[in-house]
């Protein structure tokens, strides 16, 4: 029986492709499942041979650590160069999207909290 090795929900395509290649290069037999049409299923990479789980997990952990270090180094480099994106840059690039997202967040907070205020009034 296959064992869940790596969940793919929220994983960028380039990272998923690199993981597939890495596992294939090291001779791991895997299969993938998608989240399905409604996203209810588990999008993941599964290891067919459970006896090699510790080896595969160690390989993925090492890869994830290298990727995190590279991302941190790139962020620090951009920060030193003054090219990292800040909130002001995001607002300036697309102000309508920012205002829309802010309005949606405020609306959700209101819908969540309003019933409690109505109950408190009596």
Report on the architecture of this protein.
The structure is a single chain. It contains four helices and three strands. It is mainly alpha-helical and 122 residues long. The chain folds into two domains: 3-84, Hypothetical protein rpa1041 (Alpha-Beta Plaits, 2-Layer Sandwich), CATH 3.30.70; 88-122. Helix 3 (87-93) packs across helix 4 (95-121). The chain is flat. The chain starts with a strand and ends with a helix. The model has no long low-confidence stretch (mean pLDDT 94).
**Fraction in helix:** 55-70%
CATH superfamily of the largest domain: Hypothetical protein rpa1041
Low-confidence stretches: none
- Given helix and strand content, the structural type is mainly alpha
Work out the helix count: 4
Strand order of the largest sheet: 1-3-2
Overall geometry: flat
Task: Report the average pLDDT across residues.
Answer: 94
Major sheet description? 3 strands, antiparallel
Highest-level CATH class of the largest domain: Alpha Beta
Radius of gyration: 22 Å
* Measured distance between first and last alpha carbons: 57 Å
Q: H/E order of the elements?
A: EHEEHHH
CATH architecture title of the largest domain: 2-Layer Sandwich
Could you tell me the strand content as a percent range?
5-15%
């Amino acid at each position: 029986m296959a064992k869940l090795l790596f969940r793919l929900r929220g994983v960028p395509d380039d990272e998923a492709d690199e993981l597939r290649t890495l596992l294939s290069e090291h001779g791991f037999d895997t299969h993938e499942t998608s989240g399905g049409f409604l996203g209810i299923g588990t999008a993941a990479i599964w290891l067919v041979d459970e006896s090699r789980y510790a080896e595969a997990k160690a390989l993925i952990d090492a890869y994830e650590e290298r990727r995190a270090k590279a991302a941190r180094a790139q962020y620090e480099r951009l920060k030193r160069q003054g090219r990292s994106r800040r909130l002001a840059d995001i607002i300036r690039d697309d102000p309508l999207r920012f205002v829309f997202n802010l309005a949606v967040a405020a609306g959700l907070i209101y819908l969540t909290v309003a019933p409690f205020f109505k109950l408190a009034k009596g």
